[in-house]
Amino acid sequence: MDKKKLIILLSSLAVLIVALVVGLIxxxxxxxxxxxxxxxxxxxxxxxxxxxxxEIDAIAGExxxxxxxxxxxxxLREFDMQKQKIKELQEELRRTKxxxxxxxxxxxxxxxxxxxxxAHYVRQIDSLxxxxxxxxxxxxxVKQRYQSVSATAEQLAQDKENLSEVVTRAAILELYNFSxxxxxxxxxKTDRGNRMNNLKFNFTIGKNITAEPGAxxxxxxxxxxxxxxxxxxxxxxPYENKNIAYSLSKAFEYxxxxxxxxxxxxxxxxxxxxxxxADFFADGNRIGSFSFRIEKx
Length: 297
Description:
Structural class: alpha+beta
Strand content: 15-25%
């Protein structure tokens, strides 16, 4: 091999190595950013869960304090039953993982029910103490405790509602890596509308450890330049309390890991030139919105 060819070969290898190094650095930075975002979400939910534990413990203490002012056996038995339920709820809350969005939401509902029961019981205590003049001095203390329990329970309900919103947002799927390709009758790429036999839409649904896994359906809504939705058969799906039209759909099994696929629109009409809109939906949420153009006839 002469010196000139050797120099060309070494230069090509150097360029290839630099490209590989740059690609690796970009990939590592992107991976680290995604990992940091996931870790921050998990830590936030864990902190919110610990706040729930603290508030439940506070309510248990308040309920214990009420017991010494109850002179009605039936009501006292009910209080004892509720104290046992609170104890069970405390134990389950500590066992439940912060990333278990479904169970966290159920615990939130149980806490809201507990809050209503506490208010109901406190009203009964107030009524009994007012009727019994011997407990007039204790009546003021009960009212003060009632205000404290109500404020604590209300704050807890608000905190849990905020947590539920955070978990719900975290569980929404996200679609990326969208691309549009026009294919001719031989399945070759073309940018001319009158030669397009199929429109191919590539996409990836991202990894999400919070989203509930299982069978799902992704819907694609293609809007033409004139604002009309492209359809065959008039299919609709529920979105924001109404049914809206979609162009294509596909059922898939979501495991929580990234999922890549493609949807195909069989061209049976004259394609308009201009800007199109591609909106993707899943689980009742818009998970991606993109635009693409067909410029040539």
